[in-house]
Protein backbone atom coordinates (compact mmCIF):
# COMPACT_ATOMS: atom_id res chain seq x y z
CA UNK A 1 0.00 0.00 0.00
CA UNK A 2 1.25 3.47 -0.92
CA UNK A 3 0.61 6.77 0.83
CA UNK A 4 1.02 10.42 -0.15
CA UNK A 5 4.09 12.52 0.54
CA UNK A 6 2.45 14.61 3.26
CA UNK A 7 1.32 11.44 5.06
CA UNK A 8 4.78 9.92 4.78
CA UNK A 9 6.37 13.06 6.24
CA UNK A 10 3.92 13.13 9.13
CA UNK A 11 4.83 9.52 9.88
CA UNK A 12 8.59 10.19 9.69
CA UNK A 13 8.15 13.22 11.94
CA UNK A 14 6.69 10.91 14.61
CA UNK A 15 10.07 9.16 14.67
CA UNK A 16 12.03 12.42 14.88
CA UNK A 17 13.10 12.75 11.25
CA UNK A 18 13.55 16.38 10.12
CA UNK A 19 10.91 17.56 7.62
CA UNK A 20 9.64 20.95 6.50
CA UNK A 21 6.44 22.40 7.92
CA UNK A 22 3.51 21.89 5.58
CA UNK A 23 -0.27 21.83 5.28
CA UNK A 24 -2.32 19.46 3.07
CA UNK A 25 -5.30 20.99 1.29
CA UNK A 26 -8.19 19.45 -0.62
CA UNK A 27 -9.74 22.51 -2.26
CA UNK A 28 -8.42 25.78 -3.70
CA UNK A 29 -10.37 27.69 -1.03
CA UNK A 30 -7.99 26.29 1.62
CA UNK A 31 -4.82 27.56 -0.09
CA UNK A 32 -4.74 31.08 1.41
CA UNK A 33 -5.22 29.86 4.98
CA UNK A 34 -2.50 27.24 4.52
CA UNK A 35 -0.05 29.81 3.13
CA UNK A 36 -0.80 32.24 5.97
CA UNK A 37 -0.28 29.50 8.54
CA UNK A 38 3.18 28.73 7.15
CA UNK A 39 4.14 32.38 6.83
CA UNK A 40 6.45 32.27 3.81
CA UNK A 41 8.19 34.08 2.19
CA UNK A 42 8.57 31.01 -0.07
CA UNK A 43 6.07 28.20 -0.45
CA UNK A 44 6.19 24.99 -2.44
CA UNK A 45 2.90 23.78 -3.90
CA UNK A 46 3.07 20.02 -4.46
CA UNK A 47 0.61 17.76 -6.26
CA UNK A 48 -0.18 14.69 -4.19
CA UNK A 49 -0.48 11.58 -6.36
CA UNK A 50 0.95 8.09 -6.01
CA UNK A 51 3.62 8.57 -8.66
CA UNK A 52 7.10 10.01 -8.97
CA UNK A 53 8.39 12.61 -11.40
CA UNK A 54 5.79 15.17 -10.34
CA UNK A 55 8.08 18.16 -10.79
CA UNK A 56 8.82 17.26 -14.41
CA UNK A 57 5.25 16.17 -15.11
CA UNK A 58 2.78 17.99 -17.32
CA UNK A 59 -0.92 18.62 -16.88
CA UNK A 60 -3.24 17.54 -19.66
CA UNK A 61 -5.50 20.56 -19.26
CA UNK A 62 -4.32 23.89 -20.69
CA UNK A 63 -5.87 25.71 -17.73
CA UNK A 64 -3.35 24.04 -15.41
CA UNK A 65 -0.42 25.90 -16.91
CA UNK A 66 2.98 24.58 -17.97
CA UNK A 67 4.90 24.56 -14.70
CA UNK A 68 4.54 20.92 -13.67
CA UNK A 69 3.18 19.29 -10.55
CA UNK A 70 5.60 20.90 -8.05
CA UNK A 71 5.83 24.70 -8.09
CA UNK A 72 7.65 27.38 -6.11
CA UNK A 73 5.39 30.26 -5.06
CA UNK A 74 6.80 33.65 -4.00
CA UNK A 75 3.51 35.12 -2.80
CA UNK A 76 0.21 34.04 -1.29
CA UNK A 77 -1.50 35.04 -4.54
CA UNK A 78 0.75 32.61 -6.42
CA UNK A 79 -0.10 29.85 -3.94
CA UNK A 80 -3.81 30.48 -4.58
CA UNK A 81 -3.29 30.61 -8.35
CA UNK A 82 -1.31 27.36 -8.46
CA UNK A 83 -3.88 25.60 -6.27
CA UNK A 84 -6.68 26.59 -8.65
CA UNK A 85 -4.67 25.45 -11.66
CA UNK A 86 -3.60 22.09 -10.24
CA UNK A 87 -6.51 20.73 -8.21
CA UNK A 88 -8.93 18.62 -10.20
CA UNK A 89 -6.67 18.41 -13.26
CA UNK A 90 -4.76 15.43 -14.63
CA UNK A 91 -1.00 15.23 -14.11
CA UNK A 92 1.03 13.03 -16.45
CA UNK A 93 4.49 11.86 -15.31
CA UNK A 94 6.92 9.15 -16.38
CA UNK A 95 5.37 6.89 -13.74
CA UNK A 96 1.66 7.53 -14.35
CA UNK A 97 1.71 6.57 -18.02
CA UNK A 98 -0.12 8.63 -20.66
CA UNK A 99 -3.45 8.41 -18.81
CA UNK A 100 -2.04 10.43 -15.90
CA UNK A 101 -3.66 10.85 -12.49
CA UNK A 102 -6.12 13.44 -11.28
CA UNK A 103 -4.77 15.72 -8.55
CA UNK A 104 -7.23 15.74 -5.65
CA UNK A 105 -4.85 16.91 -2.92
CA UNK A 106 -2.04 19.44 -2.62
CA UNK A 107 0.68 19.88 -0.03
CA UNK A 108 1.66 23.47 0.72
CA UNK A 109 5.13 23.42 2.26
CA UNK A 110 7.70 25.90 3.50
CA UNK A 111 10.41 26.61 0.95
CA UNK A 112 13.96 25.48 1.78
CA UNK A 113 17.36 27.00 1.05
CA UNK A 114 19.23 24.08 -0.47
CA UNK A 115 23.00 23.71 -0.40
CA UNK A 116 23.26 20.06 -1.47
CA UNK A 117 20.93 17.24 -2.55
CA UNK A 118 21.36 13.52 -1.86
CA UNK A 119 19.45 10.30 -2.41
CA UNK A 120 18.57 7.83 0.36
CA UNK A 121 16.25 4.87 0.30
CA UNK A 122 15.52 1.71 2.26
CA UNK A 123 13.99 -1.52 1.06
CA UNK A 124 13.91 -5.22 1.79
CA UNK A 125 16.76 -7.02 0.03
CA UNK A 126 15.16 -10.27 -1.14
CA UNK A 127 18.51 -11.99 -1.60
CA UNK A 128 19.69 -11.46 1.97
CA UNK A 129 16.29 -11.08 3.71
CA UNK A 130 17.64 -7.92 5.31
CA UNK A 131 16.77 -4.25 5.23
CA UNK A 132 19.09 -2.48 2.82
CA UNK A 133 20.11 1.17 2.50
CA UNK A 134 20.78 2.70 -0.90
CA UNK A 135 22.51 6.11 -0.86
CA UNK A 136 23.95 8.40 -3.49
CA UNK A 137 25.35 11.89 -3.83
CA UNK A 138 23.13 12.31 -6.92
CA UNK A 139 19.98 13.54 -5.19
CA UNK A 140 17.04 15.00 -7.04
CA UNK A 141 17.64 12.71 -10.03
CA UNK A 142 15.98 9.47 -11.14
CA UNK A 143 17.95 6.79 -9.33
CA UNK A 144 17.41 4.47 -12.32
CA UNK A 145 19.30 6.94 -14.53
CA UNK A 146 22.10 7.20 -11.97
CA UNK A 147 22.35 3.41 -11.80
CA UNK A 148 22.56 3.25 -15.59
CA UNK A 149 24.98 6.13 -16.20
CA UNK A 150 27.13 6.34 -13.06
CA UNK A 151 26.61 3.21 -10.94
CA UNK A 152 29.78 3.94 -8.99
CA UNK A 153 27.92 6.82 -7.33
CA UNK A 154 25.50 4.45 -5.61
CA UNK A 155 26.43 2.82 -2.30
CA UNK A 156 24.30 0.08 -0.78
CA UNK A 157 24.57 -2.05 2.33
CA UNK A 158 22.25 -4.13 4.49
CA UNK A 159 21.63 -4.29 8.24
CA UNK A 160 22.00 -7.59 10.10
CA UNK A 161 18.74 -8.11 12.03
CA UNK A 162 20.73 -9.80 14.81
CA UNK A 163 22.37 -6.47 15.68
CA UNK A 164 19.82 -4.04 14.30
CA UNK A 165 20.82 -0.53 13.38
CA UNK A 166 24.13 0.66 14.83
CA UNK A 167 26.18 3.88 14.66
CA UNK A 168 28.48 2.26 12.11
CA UNK A 169 25.60 2.17 9.62
CA UNK A 170 25.00 5.87 10.06
CA UNK A 171 28.71 6.57 9.62
CA UNK A 172 28.63 4.58 6.41
CA UNK A 173 25.78 6.77 5.13
CA UNK A 174 27.71 9.90 6.09
CA UNK A 175 30.87 8.64 4.39
CA UNK A 176 29.00 7.75 1.20
CA UNK A 177 27.54 11.26 1.07
CA UNK A 178 30.79 13.01 2.00
CA UNK A 179 29.39 14.50 5.21
CA UNK A 180 31.75 15.65 7.96
CA UNK A 181 31.52 17.03 11.48
CA UNK A 182 28.05 17.88 12.73
CA UNK A 183 26.41 16.85 9.46
CA UNK A 184 27.92 13.38 9.87
CA UNK A 185 26.45 13.20 13.40
CA UNK A 186 23.06 14.21 11.99
CA UNK A 187 23.35 11.46 9.37
CA UNK A 188 24.02 8.86 12.09
CA UNK A 189 20.96 10.01 14.05
CA UNK A 190 18.75 10.17 10.95
CA UNK A 191 19.77 6.69 9.83
CA UNK A 192 18.67 5.24 13.17
CA UNK A 193 15.34 7.10 13.06
CA UNK A 194 14.53 5.96 9.54
CA UNK A 195 15.39 2.36 10.39
CA UNK A 196 13.16 2.51 13.46
CA UNK A 197 10.27 3.83 11.38
CA UNK A 198 10.82 1.23 8.66
CA UNK A 199 10.71 -1.68 11.11
CA UNK A 200 7.94 -0.37 13.36
CA UNK A 201 5.54 0.29 10.49
CA UNK A 202 6.40 -2.76 8.36
CA UNK A 203 7.45 -0.63 5.43
CA UNK A 204 8.30 -2.19 2.11
CA UNK A 205 10.10 0.84 0.72
CA UNK A 206 11.15 4.26 1.99
CA UNK A 207 12.64 6.73 -0.45
CA UNK A 208 13.89 10.24 0.30
CA UNK A 209 14.79 12.05 -2.89
CA UNK A 210 16.17 14.48 -2.20
CA UNK A 211 17.66 14.42 1.25
CA UNK A 212 19.08 17.92 1.49
CA UNK A 213 21.64 19.96 3.37
CA UNK A 214 20.18 23.39 4.07
CA UNK A 215 22.13 26.65 4.04
CA UNK A 216 22.20 26.58 7.83
CA UNK A 217 23.87 23.14 7.72
CA UNK A 218 21.01 20.85 8.68
CA UNK A 219 19.83 17.64 7.06
CA UNK A 220 16.18 17.58 5.98
CA UNK A 221 13.91 15.09 4.22
CA UNK A 222 12.63 17.27 1.40
CA UNK A 223 10.54 14.51 -0.16
CA UNK A 224 9.32 11.14 1.09
CA UNK A 225 7.79 8.16 -0.65
CA UNK A 226 6.62 5.24 1.48
CA UNK A 227 4.97 1.93 0.71
CA UNK A 228 3.96 -0.77 3.18
CA UNK A 229 3.87 -4.54 3.14
CA UNK A 230 0.18 -5.23 2.49
CA UNK A 231 0.42 -8.53 4.38
CA UNK A 232 1.19 -6.65 7.59
CA UNK A 233 -1.51 -3.99 7.46
CA UNK A 234 -3.74 -5.88 9.89
CA UNK A 235 -1.19 -4.85 12.53
CA UNK A 236 -1.41 -1.17 11.62
CA UNK A 237 -4.95 0.24 11.63
CA UNK A 238 -3.43 3.74 11.79
CA UNK A 239 -1.66 3.12 8.49
CA UNK A 240 -4.79 1.64 6.91
CA UNK A 241 -6.58 4.92 7.63
CA UNK A 242 -4.12 6.65 5.27
CA UNK A 243 -5.25 4.61 2.26
CA UNK A 244 -6.47 6.76 -0.63
CA UNK A 245 -8.83 4.63 -2.71
CA UNK A 246 -9.02 7.27 -5.44
CA UNK A 247 -5.39 6.43 -6.28
CA UNK A 248 -6.10 2.74 -6.80
CA UNK A 249 -7.70 0.78 -9.62
CA UNK A 250 -11.33 -0.03 -8.77
CA UNK A 251 -10.83 -3.65 -9.81
CA UNK A 252 -7.83 -3.98 -7.51
CA UNK A 253 -9.86 -2.53 -4.64
CA UNK A 254 -12.61 -5.08 -5.24
CA UNK A 255 -10.06 -7.89 -5.44
CA UNK A 256 -8.57 -6.91 -2.08
CA UNK A 257 -11.99 -7.50 -0.44
CA UNK A 258 -11.69 -11.18 -1.37
CA UNK A 259 -7.95 -11.46 -0.67
CA UNK A 260 -7.22 -11.97 -4.37
CA UNK A 261 -3.79 -11.19 -5.81
CA UNK A 262 -4.89 -8.96 -8.70
CA UNK A 263 -2.97 -6.40 -10.74
CA UNK A 264 -4.55 -4.60 -13.69
CA UNK A 265 -2.49 -4.56 -16.90
CA UNK A 266 -2.98 -2.97 -20.32
CA UNK A 267 -3.80 -5.98 -22.50
CA UNK A 268 -6.94 -7.66 -23.80
CA UNK A 269 -6.81 -11.22 -22.43
CA UNK A 270 -8.13 -11.65 -18.90
CA UNK A 271 -6.40 -14.37 -16.88
CA UNK A 272 -7.56 -16.39 -13.87
CA UNK A 273 -4.86 -18.72 -12.57
CA UNK A 274 -3.94 -20.41 -9.29
CA UNK A 275 -0.38 -19.90 -8.09
CA UNK A 276 1.87 -16.93 -8.74
CA UNK A 277 4.41 -18.91 -10.75
CA UNK A 278 1.78 -20.42 -13.04
CA UNK A 279 0.17 -17.00 -13.39
CA UNK A 280 3.47 -15.46 -14.53
CA UNK A 281 4.01 -18.33 -16.98
CA UNK A 282 0.49 -17.75 -18.34
CA UNK A 283 1.20 -14.07 -18.90
CA UNK A 284 4.49 -14.92 -20.61
CA UNK A 285 2.99 -17.44 -23.03
CA UNK A 286 0.18 -15.04 -24.00
CA UNK A 287 2.85 -12.50 -24.92
CA UNK A 288 4.80 -15.20 -26.74
CA UNK A 289 1.87 -15.70 -29.09
CA UNK A 290 1.56 -11.99 -29.77
CA UNK A 291 -1.14 -10.71 -27.42
CA UNK A 292 -1.07 -8.87 -24.10
CA UNK A 293 -2.58 -9.97 -20.76
CA UNK A 294 -5.20 -7.69 -19.19
CA UNK A 295 -4.34 -8.65 -15.64
CA UNK A 296 -2.38 -10.77 -13.21
CA UNK A 297 -4.85 -12.72 -11.07
CA UNK A 298 -3.87 -15.48 -8.66
CA UNK A 299 -6.91 -16.97 -6.89
CA UNK A 300 -4.63 -18.87 -4.51
CA UNK A 301 -4.31 -22.50 -3.60
CA UNK A 302 -7.44 -22.89 -1.50
CA UNK A 303 -9.96 -20.53 -3.07
CA UNK A 304 -13.66 -21.02 -2.45
CA UNK A 305 -16.40 -20.96 -5.06
CA UNK A 306 -17.30 -17.46 -3.84
CA UNK A 307 -13.74 -16.29 -4.36
CA UNK A 308 -13.57 -17.74 -7.88
CA UNK A 309 -16.89 -16.12 -8.75
CA UNK A 310 -15.63 -12.76 -7.51
CA UNK A 311 -12.43 -13.14 -9.52
CA UNK A 312 -14.35 -13.88 -12.71
CA UNK A 313 -16.61 -10.87 -12.17
CA UNK A 314 -13.60 -8.61 -11.71
CA UNK A 315 -12.09 -9.80 -14.99
CA UNK A 316 -15.32 -9.30 -16.95
CA UNK A 317 -15.74 -5.81 -15.48
CA UNK A 318 -12.68 -4.66 -17.43
CA UNK A 319 -13.93 -3.17 -20.73
CA UNK A 320 -10.55 -3.89 -22.36
CA UNK A 321 -10.95 -7.65 -21.95
CA UNK A 322 -11.68 -9.33 -25.31
CA UNK A 323 -11.15 -12.91 -24.13
CA UNK A 324 -10.62 -14.87 -20.91
CA UNK A 325 -8.21 -17.68 -20.11
CA UNK A 326 -8.82 -19.82 -17.03
CA UNK A 327 -5.71 -21.90 -16.30
CA UNK A 328 -5.93 -24.09 -13.21
CA UNK A 329 -3.56 -26.79 -12.03
CA UNK A 330 -5.37 -28.38 -9.12
CA UNK A 331 -3.38 -29.38 -6.10
CA UNK A 332 -4.99 -27.99 -2.98
CA UNK A 333 -7.28 -26.10 -5.35
CA UNK A 334 -9.88 -28.50 -6.77
CA UNK A 335 -10.88 -28.26 -10.42
CA UNK A 336 -14.56 -28.85 -9.66
CA UNK A 337 -14.59 -25.81 -7.35
CA UNK A 338 -13.12 -23.68 -10.14
CA UNK A 339 -15.68 -25.02 -12.61
CA UNK A 340 -18.63 -24.23 -10.33
CA UNK A 341 -17.25 -20.76 -9.62
CA UNK A 342 -16.85 -19.97 -13.31
CA UNK A 343 -20.37 -21.16 -14.09
CA UNK A 344 -21.85 -19.13 -11.21
CA UNK A 345 -20.03 -16.02 -12.39
CA UNK A 346 -21.10 -16.47 -16.02
CA UNK A 347 -24.72 -16.88 -14.96
CA UNK A 348 -24.45 -13.74 -12.84
CA UNK A 349 -22.72 -11.41 -15.32
CA UNK A 350 -23.10 -13.17 -18.68
CA UNK A 351 -20.38 -14.15 -21.13
CA UNK A 352 -19.77 -11.67 -23.92
CA UNK A 353 -16.21 -12.73 -24.89
CA UNK A 354 -14.47 -16.02 -25.74
CA UNK A 355 -13.60 -18.20 -22.76
CA UNK A 356 -10.83 -20.82 -22.82
CA UNK A 357 -10.56 -23.18 -19.84
CA UNK A 358 -7.62 -25.43 -19.09
CA UNK A 359 -8.02 -27.68 -16.04
CA UNK A 360 -5.55 -30.24 -14.71
CA UNK A 361 -5.02 -31.92 -11.38
CA UNK A 362 -7.32 -32.73 -8.45
CA UNK A 363 -10.88 -33.60 -9.51
CA UNK A 364 -10.10 -32.58 -13.10
CA UNK A 365 -12.64 -34.95 -14.67
CA UNK A 366 -15.37 -33.71 -12.35
CA UNK A 367 -14.50 -30.14 -13.26
CA UNK A 368 -14.55 -30.81 -16.99
CA UNK A 369 -17.88 -32.63 -16.69
CA UNK A 370 -19.42 -29.73 -14.77
CA UNK A 371 -18.42 -27.34 -17.55
CA UNK A 372 -19.65 -29.71 -20.28
CA UNK A 373 -23.02 -30.07 -18.56
CA UNK A 374 -23.37 -26.31 -18.08
CA UNK A 375 -24.18 -25.60 -21.69
CA UNK A 376 -21.71 -22.70 -21.71
CA UNK A 377 -19.83 -21.82 -24.88
CA UNK A 378 -16.44 -22.73 -23.44
CA UNK A 379 -13.35 -23.62 -25.50
CA UNK A 380 -11.55 -26.53 -23.77
CA UNK A 381 -7.75 -26.78 -23.81
CA UNK A 382 -5.46 -29.72 -23.10
CA UNK A 383 -2.39 -27.86 -21.82
CA UNK A 384 -1.04 -24.34 -21.32
CA UNK A 385 0.42 -24.03 -24.80
CA UNK A 386 -2.83 -25.19 -26.37
CA UNK A 387 -4.82 -22.83 -24.14
CA UNK A 388 -2.70 -19.81 -25.04
CA UNK A 389 -2.93 -20.46 -28.76
CA UNK A 390 -6.70 -20.92 -28.58
CA UNK A 391 -7.43 -17.74 -26.63
CA UNK A 392 -5.14 -15.67 -28.88
CA UNK A 393 -6.87 -17.08 -31.95
CA UNK A 394 -10.30 -16.42 -30.44
CA UNK A 395 -9.45 -12.83 -29.58
CA UNK A 396 -8.18 -12.28 -33.10
CA UNK A 397 -11.35 -13.76 -34.55
CA UNK A 398 -9.74 -17.03 -35.60
CA UNK A 399 -11.25 -20.47 -35.43
TrEMBL record:
<dbReference type="InterPro" id="IPR013650">
    <property type="entry name" value="ATP-grasp_succ-CoA_synth-type"/>
</dbReference>
<comment type="function">
    <text>Succinyl-CoA synthetase functions in the citric acid cycle (TCA), coupling the hydrolysis of succinyl-CoA to the synthesis of either ATP or GTP and thus represents the only step of substrate-level phosphorylation in the TCA. The beta subunit provides nucleotide specificity of the enzyme and binds the substrate succinate, while the binding sites for coenzyme A and phosphate are found in the alpha subunit.</text>
</comment>
<protein>
    <recommendedName>
        <fullName>Succinate--CoA ligase [ADP-forming] subunit beta</fullName>
        <ecNumber>6.2.1.5</ecNumber>
    </recommendedName>
</protein>
<feature type="binding site">
    <location>
        <position position="112"/>
    </location>
    <ligand>
        <name>ATP</name>
    </ligand>
</feature>
<feature type="binding site">
    <location>
        <position position="274"/>
    </location>
    <ligand>
        <name>substrate</name>
    </ligand>
</feature>
<keyword id="KW-0816">Tricarboxylic acid cycle</keyword>
<dbReference type="InterPro" id="IPR005811">
    <property type="entry name" value="SUCC_ACL_C"/>
</dbReference>
<dbReference type="InterPro" id="IPR011761">
    <property type="entry name" value="ATP-grasp"/>
</dbReference>
<comment type="subunit">
    <text>Heterotetramer of two alpha and two beta subunits.</text>
</comment>
<keyword id="KW-0436">Ligase</keyword>
<feature type="binding site">
    <location>
        <position position="109"/>
    </location>
    <ligand>
        <name>ATP</name>
    </ligand>
</feature>
<feature type="binding site">
    <location>
        <position position="223"/>
    </location>
    <ligand>
        <name>Mg(2+)</name>
    </ligand>
</feature>
<dbReference type="GO" id="GO:0004775">
    <property type="term" value="F:succinate-CoA ligase (ADP-forming) activity"/>
</dbReference>
<feature type="domain" description="ATP-grasp">
    <location>
        <begin position="9"/>
        <end position="241"/>
    </location>
</feature>
<keyword id="KW-0479">Metal-binding</keyword>
<feature type="binding site">
    <location>
        <position position="209"/>
    </location>
    <ligand>
        <name>Mg(2+)</name>
    </ligand>
</feature>
<feature type="binding site">
    <location>
        <begin position="331"/>
        <end position="333"/>
    </location>
    <ligand>
        <name>substrate</name>
    </ligand>
</feature>
<dbReference type="Pfam" id="PF00549">
    <property type="entry name" value="Ligase_CoA"/>
</dbReference>
<dbReference type="InterPro" id="IPR005809">
    <property type="entry name" value="Succ_CoA_ligase-like_bsu"/>
</dbReference>
<dbReference type="InterPro" id="IPR017866">
    <property type="entry name" value="Succ-CoA_synthase_bsu_CS"/>
</dbReference>
<feature type="binding site">
    <location>
        <position position="46"/>
    </location>
    <ligand>
        <name>ATP</name>
    </ligand>
</feature>
<comment type="pathway">
    <text>Carbohydrate metabolism; tricarboxylic acid cycle; succinate from succinyl-CoA (ligase route): step 1/1.</text>
</comment>
<keyword id="KW-0547">Nucleotide-binding</keyword>
<dbReference type="InterPro" id="IPR013815">
    <property type="entry name" value="ATP_grasp_subdomain_1"/>
</dbReference>
<feature type="binding site">
    <location>
        <position position="117"/>
    </location>
    <ligand>
        <name>ATP</name>
    </ligand>
</feature>
<keyword id="KW-0460">Magnesium</keyword>
<dbReference type="Pfam" id="PF08442">
    <property type="entry name" value="ATP-grasp_2"/>
</dbReference>
<comment type="similarity">
    <text>Belongs to the succinate/malate CoA ligase beta subunit family.</text>
</comment>
<keyword id="KW-0067">ATP-binding</keyword>
<feature type="binding site">
    <location>
        <begin position="53"/>
        <end position="55"/>
    </location>
    <ligand>
        <name>ATP</name>
    </ligand>
</feature>
<dbReference type="InterPro" id="IPR016102">
    <property type="entry name" value="Succinyl-CoA_synth-like"/>
</dbReference>
